[in-house]
Amino acid sequence: MSVTREDVLKIARLAELEVDEAALPVLTEQMSRILDFVAQISAVPASEGARPFVPGPDAVRFRADEVRPWPLAFGPDRLAPAFKAGFFVVPKLGQFEEPEA
What we know:
Layout: H1 5-14, H2 24-43, E1 83-84, E2 87-88
Antiparallel strand pairs: 1-2
């Protein structure tokens, strides 16, 4: 598969990149080579018996993907000096109050 000059310009415009006119032939050739390489990889027949590569010894297994709430070491009421009805009680900030007349 070959990439044209217009393809490179369109990709650069979509990626919001400025491409120098002198760099266009090099980019066109490099993108064509990349797509040819991907086409070669796609042509390799996939077998269902091939295992995915996992670095490390075979005994290492992935944990089950479970979403669970993370338990706190202690309750949120111990994090703040004031905790009432499930909310943290914080002092008012003076800068947001109306000045007294």
